Amino acid sequence: MEGQDNTAMRGHSAPIPPPPPSPAPWQARPAPPPYNPVTDLINMVKSILWSAGFISFLFVILMSFIVVMAMTPEIQQWITTPYPSAANPGTMVLPREGVFVITPWLIVLFTFEGMAFQAWHFLMLGILISAFVAAKHDMLRSWLSSKGKLIKSLTVPEKATSSLENVAKLYMASISFSILYFIFLAAINVEMNSPDFDSWSRPELIYGLFSASVFEELISRVLLIGIPLAIIGLMKNQKEPFKKLLGGGMDLTKLTFGLIMFSSVIFALAHVGSWDFWKVPQVLVTGMALGWAFVRYGLHASILVHFSINLSSSALKIWPDNLALEGILSVIILIWLVAGAYFLLHYAIELSMKLFPSLRPKSATAGAYVSPPPHWQNYPNQGMGQSAPRSEKPPFPPPPQPPPVPMQRPGGFVCPNCGNTNASYDSGKLTCLKCGTTHNRDAPVEKVEEKKMVEF
Are 309 and 168 in contact (CB under 8 A)? Predict the structure, then answer.
């Protein structure tokens, strides 16, 4: 009987449970950061300022180019028109241009006038146009590099990576610092000396501003940064060292930072002769922006930053009494001031982390190991589809099965012989449907013996 019971229990035993999960190198994903509305608001404001600032920058720089191009005939006429000499008013002389270097004092190498001056004017204009074309080509190539790049570049400043977009960032940062510096000087009652630009004729002023943005980059960035880098590259047998003459593609290292600071100091001190020493801090920061533009993005980028600084308000020289133009430029400069303050802070933080790597936040360490979720190797057959192959022999014995618990409800039938709870009733007698034992309905229910657990 016991053997039959064992056989019956084997036939009606529960399905073999799956084995415990095998250990696997699994790490739980970190929980996403909680929603922060302040962060979303800051990102939205930053996106609006960048979009408005960059679009207005493109508008102003295009207008400045139009002014320079439109003034070309007038500048050519000014170059060939004699005027009374300052030393001898009775003598008529032609405007002269000079080629010089800064040490930081200006050392004039030679001067020229007439047709040579006219050719020089066209040379400076050609270099300026080439710089703008190179920057525009780089921007369009960046925008077309991937789907959605244009929208990201116009809304997320960190995604704007072309040279022209970074020219706008450096320009706004320089303008913001200059305005804040002028506010500081006004607060301490300091008035900076400046050249008498009002005494200059319109073609002389426009030519002086745009040609300085080209020639000063040649003698300040190429001469003081590009040539030393090329010489060092030759000495170290670096690949294509002469490409460093025009800058671009380099990172901020101890060498490049030292040359940027050296050229910035020389560039700032060279302005003392026409201005005064209060001009040095402003030009020093501007020189650092120009140096970084040269090192990272190339000569064309530093020329455009310099050109934007010199010519951003050139339209007012052409239309001095246009109130609508003054109002538009005032709003644009206000946008540049706010957006530039963000970029100024961003560049200051990045520079500090480059110079002092210990200030850079450390990356988060890996958390403690978390046990993996259940992963069963053998799934039961789900009907449709191919089920996982079952092993012939389970790798681990099944856990012990508890004995069946008889029903203890009052008035319920429990067979004292086999523990079955199903019976048929006839003439006051209950017949177990499992073992066939007949019991009187009114007889007391006997205690059912617990079946011994059978282990496989």
Answer: no
320 CB-near residues (< 8 Å, 6+ apart)? none
- Give the tens place of pLDDT for each residue, 258-292: 999 999 999 999 999 888 899 999 999 999 999 99
- The span from the CA of 304 to the CA of 317, in Å, is 20
Residue type, 284: L
Please give the backbone phi and psi of residue 27, each rounded to the nearest 5 degrees, phi first: -125, 130
Q: Is 273 exposed, middle or buried (0-12, 13-18, 19+ CB in 10 A)?
A: exposed
Cα–Cα dist 245/251, whole Å = 15
Q: Tens digit of pLDDT for each residue in 412-438?
A: 677 877 777 777 777 777 778 777 777
Residue 110 near residue 98 (C-beta atoms within 8 A): yes
Kindly report whether the global pTM for this prediction surpasses the value 0.70: yes
Beta bridge partners of 226: none
- For β-strands 83-84 and 438-440, DSSP reports them as unpaired
Q: pLDDT tens, 131-171?
A: 999 999 999 999 998 888 999 999 999 999 999 999 999 99
Gyration radius of the chain's alpha carbons: 43
Q: How far is CA 349 from CA 39, 55, 321, 343, 359, in A?
A: 19, 25, 41, 10, 9
Domain map (residue ranges) of the chain: 39-84+93-358, 405-451
Tally Cβ neighbours within 10 Å of residue 261. 14
Calculate the dihedral angle through the C-alpha atoms of 74, 79, 83, 88, rounding to the nearest 10 degrees: 160
d(CA 31, CA 15): 37
Asked if residue 389 has pLDDT above 50, the reply is yes
Q: Of 264, 353, 248, 367, nearest to 301 (Cα)?
A: 248
436 vs 446: CA distance, rounded Å: 17
Q: Buried b vs exposed e over 352-384: b needs ≥16 C-beta within 10 Å?
A: eeeeeeeeeeeeeeeeeeeeeeeeeeeeeeeee
Q: Which helix (H) or strand (E) holds 106?
A: strand 106-113
